Amino acid sequence: MWLNTTTSLFLLTGFPGMEKAHHWISIPLLVVYVSILLGNGTLLFLIRDDHSLHEPMYYFLAMLAATDLGVTLTTMPTVLGLLWLNHREIGHQACFFQAYFIHTLSIVESGVLLAMAYDRFIAIRNPLRYTSILTNTKVMKIGMGVLTRAGLSIMPIIIRLHWFPYCRSHVLSHAFCLHQDVIKLACADITFNRLYPVVVVFAMVLLDFLIIFFSYFLILKTVMGIVSGEERAKALNTCVSHICCILVFYVTVVGLTFIHRFGKHAPRVVHITMSYVYFLFPPFMNPVIYSIKTKQIQSGIIRLFSLPYSRA
């Protein structure tokens, strides 16, 4: 039976037991959201505007920034709407749409980090052929491949959400829609929707991590073969920002998985807080990491903010 999504609603949840403090909780969240928008927006503007940053490494960084912006803009409206206005209702269609983008962009982020590892691998293993191997066309194809892989892999479970009847409580456990939350409310056989995401995580996110790990093993092997200590340090330094972003992303993934798997008796607010950490910490930290560790980005930011004063 096809569900009539025009009349059915889910109810979002903020921080249970802390409803009176929602306005105060919204302040740090708003600061984080604005910081994410400004940080990643600045990166995208610099990479588009500065011709010295028109290189494969920065194109992949732009993909990462765009992904982080996408995650933020997908969750921000319902989170702030609930905390500011106590607007809890969300239609099924809008909920499924939001869940699709949240889960798709999570897979995209993993894929972009893998593409960035490939970029560093080529840059260090074949520096003389770097630009000829990673042409603009190839970078674009990699980006489209990452996006297509994520979009198609998430689609089957989201499409099935439209078919389920929802006869239980319509209260979700977060201020945004997640697939694992929605299927708990379905009165139907959800075996496929329970097993398929596990396969996707193992086949994509875990596989991405293993390939990234192997790439850095080969990178380290190449770097150790460089005679000059200064050149070794220079080569490794180009990877530091990417390694930090990998750690930020996968540590939050492991943390969230650990809480859901072993923290069943932990207060609900712990689970909810960890979900915010998962969705907000990487997008917040990635621009900070690249701004601190990448001289070209630093120089671009200095030029950007010194421009109004030079005109004056």
From TrEMBL:
Subcellular location: Cell membrane; Membrane
Gene Ontology CC entries for this record: plasma membrane
Bilayer-crossing regions: 24-46, 58-85, 97-118, 139-159, 195-219, 240-263, 269-289
Pfam family, one: 7tm_4
GO MF terms, alphabetically ordered: G protein-coupled receptor activity; olfactory receptor activity
GO biological process: cellular response to lipid
Keywords from the named record: Cell membrane, G-protein coupled receptor, Membrane, Olfaction, Receptor, Sensory transduction, Transducer, Transmembrane, Transmembrane helix
SUPFAM superfamilies assigned to the protein according to its UniProt record, in alphabetical order: Family A G protein-coupled receptor-like
Bilayer topology annotation: Multi-pass membrane protein
G-protein coupled receptors family 1 profile domain boundaries: 39-290
Function, as annotated: Putative odorant or sperm cell receptor.
Family: Belongs to the G-protein coupled receptor 1 family.
Name of the featured protein: Olfactory receptor
Species of origin: Suricata suricatta (Meerkat)
Gene from which the chain derives: LOC115271817
